[in-house]
């Protein structure tokens, strides 16, 4: 009698434990399921402040949207290395690694 109560108790404990792990898992994975912008989109948002939404400029700052990847990549790396001199872009480009600039260049080149 006593052993069966203990047995039932541990089965209950086990199932509660599993449920907790399951719901903790759900809790941990929920943010990944929401439409959270990628770090690349967050980086691009800093560019869009000047270059316009999705890099489509409404003013005198050049557009970035759908420009050739080779051009965007080359000009960003050139700004970073001070091989091309601009008013602001040298400072902006220095805030990113070469890999990040390449990824951002791809991001804008691939916008349709
Ligand atoms: C503070 C405003 C500002 C921000 C922020 C900014 N840019 Fe620029 N960008 C400019 C201006 C102005 C130019 C023209 C060159 C210059 O004067 O520096 C330019 C030029 C460029 C060019 C050359 C375009 C062409 O057609 O020759 C590229 C590529 C570029 N920016 C990419 C970016 C990227 C990528 C970011 C974000 C990481 C960014 N810019 C953030 C203002 C900005």
What would your notes on this structure say?
This protein has 112 residues and is mainly alpha-helical. It has five helices and no strands. The chain has helices spanning 2-33, 39-51, 69-80, 89-93, 98-109. It starts with a helix and ends with a helix. The relative contact order is 0.11. The protein binds heme C. Residues 46-47, 49-51, 61-62, 64, 72, 75-76, 86-89, 92, 104 line the site of heme C (HEC).
Compact summary:
The protein has 112 residues and is mainly alpha-helical. Helix content is 66%, strand content 0%. The chain contains 5 helices and no strands.
Produce the secondary structure layout.
Blueprint: H1 2-33, H2 39-51, H3 69-80, H4 89-93, H5 98-109
Helix pairs in contact: 2-5, 3-5
The protein binds heme C.
Residues 46-47, 49-51, 61-62, 64, 72, 75-76, 86-89, 92, 104 line the site of heme C (HEC).
